[in-house]
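Structure (tokenized):
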């Protein structure tokens, strides 16, 4: 009995055996995502090296916000109108091409600030279409009862790619340079095509809506009626806008905690370590029926962890536990460990919230409109951190590096508690009777 209970606490692997197509797509997405993280972190470090500006780093995310929103929405319409396998393959090809060009420019030492901005925008926009389409595909490959397990496996993917990717990027940039880092992303991304190419043909079920304004309006009308889906989108925007310190990490590693690019990679990896562990022990999460309540509690924990990060950075600013000089060669090891602990808790909480949010969208939204809602979902998931980069970068420039996470954590706790209190239906959401 004890052995069975211990097994029940581990992640549910049945989606792999239930659908070999899902297993292949998961492997391809995981390896490609690992390479994508190499490029994301390398571009941040590259921009900081070229400009010595935290604001310029934050603007990488901000500049891509509008194109990514357009791509996500249009990609969702394409996924509801055409074979989803073909849509994902075409978008992946664009992502691959932008990464190849980035590597070529780096090898030729032709990279500039504007090239970094343009290629990061193209890359993130095309990738948002891939993600929206891929998420719309999953419910066609698996039965509804395995969707929470599939979302938890997605957390494993995020954990692997964000835990290993940033740390590897920091080490590679420090020792072999940007060109090799971008090139490794090119090689890893080839696996994405394997996962997508071997999928069956997946034409949307039900009435097919042609891409265009009317299709977009139809999705907006559905979302207007779907109070539970709408609120979970809003809660995620709140969490990511006020609790996303990623754009601060290069400056934190350079001037506050020390350690330079390696610290940047370690801090980012700490978030993923929390996500990975929470997915690894996600067995009990898959048995929770009240997904709305689970989302609320997970985001409240996330806000508290981000506020704690602000306190740790404040201690670093005061010189606590610091060596005589904090720089790349002399990091503040005690507070780096403390910062990693707060970020690991934040990553775990965000992943638990993501499992519930993904499952809610996949289970409660009809297949004929799922692509458009997944497009909006990806815009929210990817757009929130970009707003967060603007918030953190601007406020840090005006105040101090420790202030944005400290203030943001308390804002998250207050806003989430207030918004959920206004919607008792959200707290009562039952996974056995999914209601959008």
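Design, position by position:
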């Amino acid at each position: 009995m004890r052995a069975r209970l211990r097994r029940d606490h581990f992640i549910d692997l049945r989606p792999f055996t239930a659908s070999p197509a899902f297993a292949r797509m998961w492997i391809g997405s995981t390896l490609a995502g690992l390479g994508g993280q190499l490029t994301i972190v390398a571009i941040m470090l590259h921009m900081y090296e070229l400009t010595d500006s935290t604001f310029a780093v934050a603007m990488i995310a901000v500049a891509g916000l509008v194109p990514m929103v357009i791509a996500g929405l249009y990609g969702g319409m394409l996924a509801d109108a055409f074979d989803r396998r073909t849509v994902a393959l075409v978008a992946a090809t664009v992502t691959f091409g932008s990464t190849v060009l980035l590597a070529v420019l780096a090898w030729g030492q032709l990279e500039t600030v504007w090239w970094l901005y343009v290629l990061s925008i193209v890359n993130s926009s095309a990738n948002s279409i891939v993600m929206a389409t891929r998420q719309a595909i999953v419910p066609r490959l698996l039965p509804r009862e395995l969707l929470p397990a599939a979302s938890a496996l997605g957390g494993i993917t995020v954990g692997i790619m964000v835990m290993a990717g940033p740390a590897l990027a920091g080490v590679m940039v420090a020792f072999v340079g940007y060109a090799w880092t971008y090139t490794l992303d090119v090689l890893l991304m080839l696996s994405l095509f394997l996962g997508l190419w071997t999928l069956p043909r997946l034409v949307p079920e039900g009435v097919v809506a042609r891409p265009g304004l009317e299709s977009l309006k139809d999705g907006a009308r559905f979302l207007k009626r779907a109070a539970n889906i709408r609120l979970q989108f809003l809660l995620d925007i709140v969490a990511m806008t006020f609790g996303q310190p990623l754009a601060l990490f290069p400056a934190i590693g350079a001037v506050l905690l020390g350690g330079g690019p390696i610290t940047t990679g370690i801090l980012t990896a700490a978030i993923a370590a929390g996500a990975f562990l929470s997915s690894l022990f996600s067995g009990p999460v898959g048995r929770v029926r009240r997904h709305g309540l689970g989302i609320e509690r997970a985001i409240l924990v996330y806000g508290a962890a981000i506020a704690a990060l602000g306190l740790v950075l404040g201690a670093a600013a005061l010189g606590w536990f610091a060596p005589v000089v904090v720089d790349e060669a002399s990091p503040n090891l005690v507070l780096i460990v403390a910062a990693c602990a707060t970020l690991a808790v934040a990553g775990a909480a965000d992943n638990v919230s993501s499992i519930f949010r993904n499952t809610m969208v996949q289970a409660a939204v009809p297949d004929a409109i799922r692509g458009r809602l997944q497009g909006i979902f990806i815009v929210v998931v990817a757009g929130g951190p970009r707003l967060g980069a603007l918030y953190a970068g601007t406020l840090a420039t005006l105040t101090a590096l420790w202030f944005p996470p400290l203030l943001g954590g308390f804002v998250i706790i207050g806003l989430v508690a207030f918004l959920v209190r206004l919607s008792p239906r959200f707290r009562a959401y039952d996974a056995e009777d999914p209601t959008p």
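Reviewer-requested clarification: The chain has 18 helices and no strands. Residues 1-5 have pLDDT under 50 and may be disordered.
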